[in-house]
Design goal:
mainly alpha
Length: 145
């Protein structure tokens, strides 16, 4: 609910209470819980406003730090020709006590970096032209003359 709508509900609640209604009765008619109205009033009195805050932290507390990302890329640059697997690289980083990150974290960091990725584009097998030629050959052998 927007802050303007909450303010309108609180104005309506204040008007009804001024006219002699109890706060609980007004909340029951408006189908708003009594504790919620009290919470909104406390937020106004404290100066926090009625707008909803963004939930949660802006960054995950368990996210990789910048030095950890740099270390993952450094491990890749040093060992990728020998290990050839992000899983092996993750274990090597742990064994060498350079960075302790999961295999999937290694994959995500290396995938985002420019130095990681397949060197040869993947080929579609069989190639569509081969399939088309095979279909023509197959159909021509059933042609009646």
């Amino acid at each position: 609910m927007d802050g303007d709508v909450k303010a309108g509900v609180l104005d309506l609640v204040a008007y009804a209470v001024d006219e002699g209604w109890s706060l609980r009765r007004v909340c029951g008619v408006l189908e708003v819980t009594h504790p919620r109205v009290i919470f909104w009033l406390d937020r106004i009195n404290s100066g926090a406003g009625l707008e909803d805050r963004i939930p949660g932290p802006t960054q995950a507390p368990h996210a990789l730090l910048d030095w950890e990302r740099d270390e993952i890329i450094a491990i890749y640059d040093t060992w990728h020709e020998i290990d050839r697997s992000y899983r092996k690289l993750a274990h090597r980083g742990s064994r060498q006590d350079r960075v302790h990150a999961s295999e999937s974290s290694f994959w995500r960091v290396l995938e985002m970096s420019t130095s990681f990725g397949p060197t040869v584009p993947s080929l579609i097998w069989p190639h569509p032209d081969v399939i088309a030629d095979a279909a023509v050959t197959l159909l021509s052998c059933f042609t009646v003359r």
